[in-house]
Design brief:
It is a single chain. The protein has 127 residues and is mainly α. It has a domain of 51 residues. Helix content is 68%, strand content 0%. The chain contains four helices and no strands. 0% of the residues are buried. About 6% of the residues have low confidence.
């Protein structure tokens, strides 16, 4: 039988999972603009497309924030990102992969050392 804290931990994890799934589904509806139309009327996509109001919204944002036209990026880098953002993300991915390789090597070396210690203890060797 599981201890009481393990049962509580399972319950908390289940609630976190439910909240995460609900949030992801709500975010997907909100990002497509479908949440306005999904619940009251049942017609999910009443607009002509997902980008129907984007240009007006962007212009409104620029007007509200007083963003000058000289600060608008005309040319994007790869995959719609700026080159600085792309290089930063590439560096972070390479760093994460390198950290993963170091972690795996450390685990292997730890396993080797523990195996050597186990064999020495079985044979009665002291060094």
């Amino acid at each position: 039988m599981l201890p009481m804290y393990a049962k509580k931990l399972r319950l908390v994890c289940l609630w976190i999972l439910i909240v995460a799934i609900t949030g992801a589904a709500g975010g997907a509806l909100w990002s497509t603009g479908a949440s306005k139309y999904a619940f009251p009327s049942g017609a999910v996509f009443a607009e002509t497309g997902p980008d129907a109001h984007d240009n007006g919204d962007i212009q409104w944002f620029k007007d509200q924030m007083a963003i000058s036209e000289k600060y608008i990026q005309e040319q994007t880098g790869i995959w719609g990102m700026s080159w600085g953002h792309f290089y930063t993300m590439a560096f972070l991915v390479l760093f994460a992969l390198g950290a993963l390789v170091v972690f795996v090597q450390r685990q292997r070396r730890t396993r080797e050392i523990l195996e050597i210690i186990r064999k020495e203890m079985q044979n009665g060797d002291s060094g």
